[in-house]
Specification:
The strands form four sheets. The protein has a seven-stranded mixed beta sheet. It has 14 helices and 15 strands. Helix 2 packs across helix 3, helix 6 runs parallel beside helix 8 and helix 7 packs antiparallel against helix 11. It starts with 10 loop residues before the first strand and ends with a strand.
Length: about 325
């Protein structure tokens, strides 16, 4: 897929066996480097203009890679969707500007389509005070990486933005039915990355993020205060991570080709006026691959802003429409 964007990536990671197999299959070069070896990492990065960081959970890896990028003057992109990571990297804005490089986390499905939706709706209603964003998938399933990140966050609850501040809430504290255009689906609140990024992009002070879920799951979550402490135990999380490793790595090519990602957004102002829109596009992991390479290509061609950036704030609300198969409709 990288060749479609005239890109020739060099793979990097700490597992030489896995890297060699992947590089051989893709006819790419690779370099073995460990994030915990800052000296070796910086020495490696000096040979490249940009890093597209895809090693999660990002709460363990993003800071190490981003610091190495700052030290070497290398642009940093990643595909995180973790609120804490966005907030952490945002603090590097000043140093990144001094270095003349861009730090842009969330260049995949987390959070390109939702960030573009937030920007689009805010442009339509500049006086919006509340933003709701929801996403769902038809026909897809989770990858190891996403599932492992979720396992690391088990029992930690949810989050919203209230009056400009990130506020902890129970996971799934709200739920309702959303018409995504092709299908009505039940959604519930989760701590999606837009709690951070949509505020940076739009300045809207009240933001909630939702994902598709079964009403049964939503109902069960009202008991979470009784079992969240168990899910936070290391041995419980490790148990689930071991189970994840035994599962298929993620959706295969056939499944990804058939699946669709859906995004819905709604803004409201003080006069209780509302506007909503929907986005339909390729399956989430496919969209992630395309959007991350699209942004990589832009940066390498000189189309970037130094400092910490969000996708839609930097490239506009129509960035997601540059991806084949993506459509947007006003409800």
């Amino acid at each position: 897929m990288a060749s479609q964007f005239n890109l020739i990536p060099v793979l990097a990671g700490r597992n030489s066996t896995a890297l060699k197999e992947m590089a051989s299959a893709l006819s790419l070069e690779f370099v073995v480097v460990d994030l915990d070896d800052a000296t070796a990492l910086e020495s490696t990065l000096k040979n490249f203009p940009l890093v597209l960081h895809a090693a999660g959970p990002f709460k363990f890896t993003a800071q190490k890679m981003a610091k190495a990028c700052l030290a070497t003057g290398v642009h940093y992109l990643d595909i995180t969707g973790e609120i804490a990571v966005f907030e952490l990297l945002k603090k590097m804005d000043g140093i990144a500007k001094e270095k003349g490089i861009m730090i842009m986390p969330g260049v995949g499905f987390d959070v390109v389509p939702t960030d573009c939706m937030a920007k689009f709706l805010h442009e339509k209603m500049p006086n919006a005070t509340h933003l709701k964003l929801a996403f769902a998938t038809i026909g897809g399933k989770l990858s190891h990486g996403t599932a492992t990140t979720m396992a690391e966050g088990m029992g930690e609850g949810g989050a919203v933005r209230e009056n400009g501040k990130i506020t902890r809430k129970p996971l799934g504290h709200k739920g309702f039915w959303v018409d995504f255009g092709v299908k009505k689906m039940f959604v519930m609140t989760i701590p999606w990355g837009d709690i951070s990024t949509a505020f940076t992009t739009t300045g809207i002070p009240n933001i909630e993020t939702y994902t598709g879920a079964s009403p049964k799951t939503f109902s069960m979550l009202k008991w979470q205060n009784w079992f969240n402490w168990v899910l936070q135990l290391s041995f419980v999380r490790n148990y689930y991570k071991r189970k994840i490793k035994k599962m298929p790595a993620g959706p295969d090519d056939a499944m990804r080709a058939k699946a669709k990602s859906l995004v819905w957004g709604e803004v409201t102002n003080d006069q209780n006026e509302q506007m909503s829109a929907t986005i339909q596009g390729p399956e989430g992991y496919t969209l992630t691959a395309i959007s991350s390479l699209l942004i990589t290509q832009k940066v390498l061609s000189g189309n970037y802003k130094s400092g910490y950036q969000t996708p839609a704030a930097c490239y506009g609300a129509d960035l997601v429409l540059e991806i084949d198969g993506v459509t947007r409709s006003i409800n």
